[in-house]
Amino acid sequence: MKIAHISDLHFSSSLFVPRWAENVARTMEKERPDLLVVTGDLTNDGYASEFEAAKSFLDSLEAEDMLVVPGNHDSRNLGYTIFEEIFGPRFPTYVGRGVTVVGLDSTEPDVDDGHVGREHYGPIREQFNGQNIRILALHHHLIPIPGTGRERQIPTDAGDLLGVCKEVGVDIVLSGHKHLPWIWNLDGCFFITTATATTRRLKGRSRPAMGILEIEGRSLVLHDIKTDDLERAIVLRTELRVR
Ligand SMILES: [Fe+2]
Ligand SMILES: [Fe+2]
Predict the structure, then answer these.
(1) C-alpha of residue 174 to centroid of ligand 2, in Å
(2) Which SS3 state, helix, strand or coil, does residue 80 take?
(3) CATH number of the CATH domain containing 228
(4) Distance 83 CA to ligand 2 centre (A)
(5) Domain extent at residue 59
(6) What is the pLDDT of residues 34-76, one digit of tens each?
(7) pTM for the model
């Protein structure tokens, strides 16, 4: 099972770099993943034209399936209604090839703070059943990330969500928002944040990037691919714990 993880495309931002988007497309053509996970901020302001541009870009990528969740920028200006119209449910699910991916909308209209809400914890518990690898995908980070300055916008219910992750044995959490790649291992669950793939909205001298996850049985290999020059490195090689 191969999953490509991209985030924070910010279509129509003045800092969007078309060449980096082309490098994402080239990587997808080479990797041909089974699933593309996009963890939000497809747009800069939630406008319909931005969603349309993001949709046509994502549809042009080589991936068998796609799971997309909105980011705080997508929920501006009623953007969450356009998101549903163009991409479907804000809480999407993928089940296949030994993995279950549950997507969460961690946004609220016109605010940048994250929030998922306890009404969604039940469905998370119900969807993670059986032997599949359990992956959550959401825009906001659940654990603070070094090198990203003053902590803000972490979901108001991050602690409770971490509790749900522990309780149901989530294996991997994919997120974006911080525009800086990072991995935390908390009690055997890997919290993988990827950078912005296509914009200069970067922290200091950090670089744009995307992730490729290779999952065989309970083995996980994570490749970080810089989208400015396609430099590639394995940043995680691990056995996921046996449940
Ligand atoms: Fe972003
Ligand atoms: Fe964001």
Answers:
(1) 13
(2) helix
(3) 3.60.21.10
(4) 15
(5) 2-239
(6) 999 999 999 999 999 999 999 999 999 999 999 999 999 999 9
(7) 0.98
